[in-house]
Amino acid sequence: MKKAWNEVKASIKSRIPGHSFWMWIEPLQIARGDEGSIVLYSPNFFSRKRVLEHYGALIESEIKKVLGKSCRLSIEISVTNTLPKPKADQNPQLLLPNINVCPNNGRLLTKDFTFDRFVVAENNSFAYSASLSIASQKNGYQNALFLLSKTGMGKSHLCQAVGHHILSEYPSDRIYYMTAEDFSNEMVDAYQHNSINAFKQKYRNQCDVLLLEDVHYLRGKDRTQIELALTLDTLFEAGKKIIFSSCYLPAEIPKLDDKLRSRFSCSLISNIDPPDFRTRVRILEKKASFNGYVVPEEVIHYLAAELTDDVRQLESGLIGVTAKSNLLGTPIDLGLAESVVKTIARQRKNITIDVIKKMVCKHYNISISDIVSRCRKQSIVRPRQIAIYLSRRYTDSSIQVIGKSFNRYHATALHSIGIVEQGIKENGPLQKQVEFLCKKVDSGKF
After folding, report:
1. N or C: which end of the chain has fewer CB within 10 A?
2. Residue 98 is assigned to a structural domain of this protein
3. What pLDDT sits at residue 345?
4. 204 shares its domain with 283
């Protein structure tokens, strides 16, 4: 039977992409077989679910070709991958329901951000497969992953899903989940309190899995970059697992140490694209099901058609519809959905870089030629930075295209975005100006 299964795998290997084969088919092992059925072992629940949904029919077809007869396929979880039982003098630790999971250090893992609650589609299948592979394999050939997408597409979900899965499979692993800004702040605090050696020891020798989000915030932070690069060297050499996330490719992040950029680039870079209509419908249906919401199909389809920016906007629409229904005591229907969408979806005007330029120039009383000029006066530089930020936020244009539109290199455009993002965090005059302009765009009154 083992020989027959090897023939089946060889045939499947020639019919599906290489990364899919190594991810899902190669780990399967033959368990047993009789006259009318074949039982395979899968390393974990997620792999079993994925294989049955996407490759079950193909496997049964190839088994029929090899054996010359139809066999019913079933997949069981391999007992060698179950969690070890506690010793007699140990009390098993149970997870409390409905709370976020706390890893060894850093931020809490959101309880809903698990693999089984992630909707897999063409826009994110490779990122999902790569994340699950790193989470599932104890000693894999690829231990570093770089998740790339615009805000709200699912990077944090996959990053935390890796943490959840490892905690369930290998509860003794030490997992650190944080943003790059958290890492930088902790390092600065360690220097201020003369505890930098303890800081280095923790990250270099007491960490098995590092989940580091928003690495583009490291730009210009030279001291933090040097320390992180040395930490990553130690973790890479020890075969530890590392997940990075960012809105930008490593090559697009300005003022980044070459050694650190090389480390990011050596990771498996997995892009997550915006979901299409069918995927948005599936996301809404799954989130409604998990939260116990009863939402009519026509409302689901309406929300999926209107809320197209990102997954967070979809969630906001779903929560808004259900919350308004509960508060007003009215049924969920299209009228209610339309009233919610009006408050969160911008008007269907074609928002382009040129439209944003004109709006910003009118607000600051400057000309289009001023905003694209080489002028370094603050009265011109600040509106230009804001316009670049808004272009990134409200259009699908790449950093290169945005920079070229303002007669700037992409690194300068990224720097402008960073300046505005920092100003927004400080809740000062810049934050108020950006908020005002965002409201104009969102309302369509520009």
Report:
1. N
2. no
3. 58
4. no
88 pLDDT band, cuts 50/70/90, is very low
CATH of the domain at 64: 3.30.300.180
Query: What type of residue sits at position 108?
Result: L
Provide long-range contacts, Cβ within 8 A and 24+ apart, for 85-91: none
Enclosing domain of residue 367:
353-443
Question: Which residues have C-beta within 8 Å of that of residue 338, sequence separation ≥ 6?
Answer: 302
Same domain, 126 and 236: yes
| pLDDT tens digits for range 374-424 | 998 999 999 999 999 999 888 877 788 899 999 998 888 888 998 998 888
Contact of 208 with 175, CB cutoff 8 Å: yes
Position of tokens 């765009």?
Answer: 441
Q: Is residue 294 part of a domain?
A: yes
Residues 175 and 60 in one domain: no
Give the pLDDT of residue 101. 59
Strands 29-33 and 37-42: antiparallel
Same domain, 214 and 259: yes
Structure tokens at 213: 């989000």
Which tens digits make up the pLDDT trace of 18-67?
667 877 888 888 888 877 888 898 877 777 888 888 888 889 888 888 88
66's CB contacts (< 8 A; 6+ apart) are 4, 7, 8, 11
pLDDT of residue 328: 85
336 touches 355 (CB < 8 A): no
Q: Please tell me the predicted confidence (pLDDT) of residue 31.
A: 86
* Shared domain check, 265 and 176: yes
CA distance 103 to 347: 42
- pLDDT score of 19: 64
Q: Is residue 162 part of a domain?
A: yes
Claim to verify: residue 37 and residue 67 sit in the same structural domain:
yes
Quickly state the pLDDT bin for 82 (edges 50, 70, 90). Answer: very low
Burial class of 272 by CB neighbour count within 10 A (0 to 12, 13 to 18, 19+): buried
Mark which of 344, 363, 387 sits at the end of a domain. Answer: 344
Q: Are residues 134 and 265 in the same domain?
A: yes
Domain boundary at 344, 371, 387, which?
Answer: 344
* 3-class secondary-structure state, position 145: strand
DSSP-derived 3-state class of residue 163 = helix
- Contact (Cβ atoms closer than 8 angstroms) between residue 407 and residue 375: no
Nearest residue to 24 via CA among 11, 10, 42: 42
Same domain, 334 and 361: no
Q: How many CB atoms lie within 10 A of CB 58?
A: 16
Is 90 domain-assigned?
no
CA–chain centroid gap for 148, Å, is 7
